[in-house]
Design brief:
17 helices; Growth Hormone, Chain: A; mainly alpha
């Protein structure tokens, strides 16, 4: 018995996800599997405090090893993908990360934590630009926003599952949290190895070692790109306040319990899952420059909701507005980097971009808490709004220069083409 044909509504719903290169789907599923266990680092301070009786300063220094490794990994992972096969690099980085998580699941000596976290951070940081390159590089320019949106949705779905899983396992023992994270990461590595072997030469052959001396330009001499990154530093420092000073403000000024931080992040994740693909599809129609600047401004202006009143409603409005900004800037910046790196050392561009995004964790929490203590939360939110205005001003001429050559037009939609042929046939 033959299956009934899919409805036109279902075809229309699935059309944005069809016709993408196979490597997009491979990387999306990899991100989902990897991030199902991907929040174990959040339990690390509790693990070190309760199991090893470390002081707060020692915990901070130990955690800094992971941050330093992630920053180094972001810088070097992209560069390595200019020289070696990105598929093998991604599998290698995930495998190393998974093995480090297995070590953390064991009762290792305290002196071993810093080197393990350094290597783990390097592997995690190096995987990000390679993952992004493998997913976006084979796409046509107009497809890249949808592909990046699919990666974001997969990431958020994985983290949502990880929150439920890790929270339950932490009640049994922190070692189980790291064991589950290791199992997910190693499973993602196995998936990559199997999927790319099965797909064969689905991804373009990478540059050979030493081929980067052919005169192709790198990011360090690209003034518009560096200026864009400078603006992005300010924007990401503002964005990072949701992880540190927002919770303090809600507790001290709104008298809301810590569970409200969880509620707000749940709203953030649900909005990303529900809206990211739809917004990503429209970005080029709205204009990449306008969408980028709107996302930057929304990120900082969102905090101004907190000074207009007091209570959960204002916090919800803040998070909803900030998430709309995030939904714009994440695919916009990825598309800008891919567009600018066309015909250049793309891996180094992606590596520097990811390093700047990751690098905010080295200064934004400390700067935000210092300002919060020095001038108060209300003044900090005004400073956040001023910072994104400055960010938009800094990168405006850079974005104009980078977008002087627009991406190629979108390929024809086979579903719409079939509808047009059908209507012509009816008219004839």
């Amino acid at each position: 018995m033959s299956r009934p044909p899919p409805s036109p509504w279902l075809k229309r719903l699935l059309s944005p996800y069809r016709g993408l290169p196979a490597t997009v789907y491979i990387q999306v599923l990899c991100s989902l599997i990897n991030n199902i266990g991907g929040i174990s680092k959040l339990f690390l301070p509790l693990y070190l405090r309760e199991s090893y009786q470390l002081g707060y300063a020692q915990i901070g220094l130990t955690m800094a090893a992971y941050g330093a490794g992630a920053l180094l990994g972001s810088l070097n992972g992209g560069s390595l993908s200019d020289r070696f096969d990105g598929r093998k690099l991604a599998t290698l980085f995930l495998s190393v990360s998974g093995l480090c998580l297995l070590l953390l699941a064991l009762a290792i000596p305290l002196w071993l934590f810093a080197p393990v976290l350094l290597v783990s951070g390097f592997a995690d940081g190096a995987f990000r630009p390679v993952n992004l390159r493998l997913a976006l590089e084979p796409c046509l320019p107009r497809q890249r926003a949808v592909a990046q949106g699919m990666l974001r949705v997969a990431f958020n779905l994985g983290v949502a599952g990880a929150g439920l899983l890790s929270g339950s396992l932490a009640a049994i023992g922190y070692g189980w949290v790291y064991a589950a994270n290791a199992a997910a990461t190693l499973s993602a590595a196995l998936w990559l190895a199997w999927a790319y072997r099965r797909a064969g030469a689905a991804h373009a052959e990478p540059p050979r070692a030493g081929e980067d001396a052919d005169g192709r330009q790198g990011p360090w001499r690209d003034a518009p790109f560096l200026r864009m990154l400078l603006g992005m530093v300010l924007m990401t420092a503002v964005f990072d306040q949701i992880y540190v000073t927002l919770g303090l403000f809600l507790r001290e000024h709104y008298q809301l319990g810590p569970q409200w931080v969880g509620y707000l992040f749940t709203l953030n994740g649900l909005m990303v899952v529900a809206l990211q693909i739809a917004i990503s599809r429209r970005i080029l129609d709205w204009g990449l420059l306008a969408s980028t600047q709107a996302g930057v401004l929304l990120t900082g202006f969102a905090f101004l909701w907190l000074i207009l009143g007091q209570g959960p409603l204002w916090a919800v409005l803040m998070m909803a507005t900030l998430t709309l900004g995030e939904l714009l800037v994440s695919p916009c910046y990825a598309m800008l980097v891919m567009h600018r790196s066309e015909g250049r050392l793309r891996g180094r561009y992606l590596g520097l971009y990811n390093a700047v995004w990751q690098g905010r964790t080295l200064f934004a929490p400390a700067l935000g808490t210092w300002l919060y203590g020095a001038v108060g939360g209300i003044a900090l939110w005004w400073l956040c709004a001023a910072a994104v205005c400055l960010s938009a001003l800094i990168q405006q001429p850079a974005l104009r220069a980078m977008l002087a050559n627009e991406p190629e037009p979108a390929p024809p939609n086979p579903y719409k083409a079939s509808q047009a042929h059908a209507r012509q046939g009816e008219n004839s």
